[in-house]
Write the structure tokens for this entry.
Amino acid sequence: MTLIESAKLCEVDPWAYLKDVLTKLPTWPNSRLDELLPHNWARTNIHFRKMVADTERLAAMYRSKIDAHISAARQRVSPEQFDAWLNEIGDRHA
């Protein structure tokens, strides 16, 4: 079985796993190589996966709030004013 297949069986994103392991491998002690196997890596990286899930959930929540504000603003002004406002925001954040 390949590392990618093992990672999938452990419900680990294979590319995140490989990226992390290949980054750690050059300085990782030989006596601890078993910690980098997918089933062990998955156990030690549960907090990481939870943090990613929490971040994605918060990002989705903020995106929906931003979309609601933009929709409300669009209804209160003319299309020209709205476009000018979007251009102004874009200029500030460019």
The CA atoms of residues 7 and 16 lie 10 Å apart.
